[in-house]
Design goal:
With about 170 residues, the chain is an alpha+beta fold. It is built from five helices and eight strands. Helix 1 runs antiparallel to helix 2. The radius of gyration is 15 Å and the shape is globular.
């Protein structure tokens, strides 16, 4: 995955340079922790977040085998995404942004990078199984809701299933 450098005049109230680069296998634990911090923004209780850890653990083997990218803002890890196989395209396994940077353009930049990467790899669709609280972001990014998927964490909980045709 090529390194992308994007000059950002203003990322919310943070001026600087946003760089998107391939994730490194040794960052798996750091990225897992970032994802859990971002998930906690939605007000989930500690028990639910503890159950999330298993499902949200970023595996070094997946970083090595599938596209995963990290956004850095002024040298600090600001967010990341990763892909997973899906029958009808490629799935967005993760897209998380540090809580203090949410709403400042980092997620949008990661999304644009993910879309460009999926297109470059020849996929016809990008599939997202979203947290219900993040569905609005993906709809604003051009996805369409195509159904739901059952949660791996809670019986009866349905997660929005979204698709962006590439």
């Amino acid at each position: 995955m090529p390194k992308t450098r994007s000059a950002v005049a203003e990322v919310g109230a943070v001026a600087g340079t946003l760089t998107i680069r391939p994730a490194r296998v040794e960052e798996a634990d750091l990225l897992t922790d970032l994802g859990l911090r971002a998930k906690a923004v939605w007000g989930y209780n500690a028990g639910f977040l503890a159950r999330c850890r298993a499902a949200m653990t970023v595996k070094a083997a997946n970083i090595a085998a599938r596209p995963h990218a990290v956004a850095e803002l002024n040298g600090r890890i600001a967010g990341f995404y990763g892909f997973e196989p899906e029958p009808d395209g490629v799935g967005l396994d993760y897209l998380f942004v540090e809580p203090d940077l949410i709403g400042r353009g980092v997620g949008r930049a990661l999304w644009a990078h993910a879309v460009a990467t999926a297109r470059r790899l020849g996929h016809r669709a990008l599939i997202v199984v979203s947290d219900p609280n993040a569905e609005g972001f993906y709809l604003r990014m051009g996805c369409r809701r195509i159904g739901t998927r059952p949660s791996e964490l809670e019986d009866g909980r349905q997660l929005p299933l979204l698709r962006l045709l590439l």
